[in-house]
Amino acid sequence: MKLKVTTLEAGTAGEVELSEDVFGVAPRADILARVVQWQENRRHKGQHRTLTRREIDRTTKKIYKQKGTGQARHGAASVAQFRGGAKAMGPVLRSRETDLPKKVRALGLKMALTSKHQDGDLIVLDFAKSADAKTKGMVAAFGKLGWKSAVIVDGPAFDTGFERAARNIPHIDLLPVQGINVLDVLRRQKLVLTRAALLALEERFK
User: Fold this and answer.
1) Taking all residues of the chain, what is their mean pLDDT, rounded to a whole number?
2) Start and end residues for every CATH 3.40.1370.10 domain found in the chain
3) Which of 38, 25, 14 is nearest to 183 (CA)?
4) HSE-up of 72 (CA within 13 Å, CB side)?
5) Which pTM was predicted?
6) What are phi and psi of 16, to 5 degrees?
7) What's the CATH code, domain 2-44+100-204?
8) Least crowded by CB within 10 Å, which of 51, 124, 156, 186?
9) How many degrees, rounded to 5, is the angle at CA 165 between CA 156 and CA 196?
10) CA 112/CA 110 separation, integer angstroms
11) Cα–Cα distance between 176 and 179 in angstroms, integer?
12) E-strand stretches of the chain
């Protein structure tokens, strides 16, 4: 499979050969759904919690005598009935992370890449570089290329000027190749891989 290489000036810079093992895997919705759910579960913070009785910093002295007051019997001010007390059966810290075999994760990424290629939304970019590091110029370049929603993947690190110019553009995500994942690939319309990212991906799946 061959694909034309695009430049930021909307020109062409030859062709590249795409690996069948990476970009020729038949997509399956169930596999993609499993990988996306696994990612969402890992991203969930799970930090919503309340203080328990043991964590309330209040006196444990009996607040009033047991009998003769006409009120309910209470032994501490840390109970849920009082202001500043603990919340009965409140939320606690928990992780929603689930397990997913590495082979299924790798297969899901291949399927996401293949899906973008089959839909015509896979673009190979020659170089992701910007000489002036100006966002205005980068917006104009992306508009000429028709990139309204895209995730751009480069090699181990982005060019400083390009990253500075593109990082604040709405609906444009920048990812190093080691951080590419199914969720970020699918959530944007276009997948833009630089030559360096393409080589790194194919090397990764050998």
Assistant:
1) 93
2) 2-44+100-204
3) 38
4) 7
5) 0.80
6) -130, 150
7) 3.40.1370.10
8) 156
9) 25
10) 5
11) 5
12) 2-6, 12-17, 122-125, 150-154, 172-176, 190-194
- What region does 147 belong to: left with phi over 0, alpha with psi -120 to 50, or beta? beta
Identify the bridge partners of residue 6 per DSSP, sorted by sequence position. Answer: 12, 125
Cα three-residue angle 69-73-75, rounded to 5 degrees? 115
Q: What is the pLDDT of residue 117?
A: 96
What is each CA distance from 79 to 29, 51, 111, in whole angstroms?
Answer: 50, 11, 54
Tokens 């891989």 belong to 193
Closest by Cα among 11, 8, 12 to 166? 8
H or E element: which one contains 165? helix 160-166
Record the tokens describing residue 15, joined without a space: 């062709």
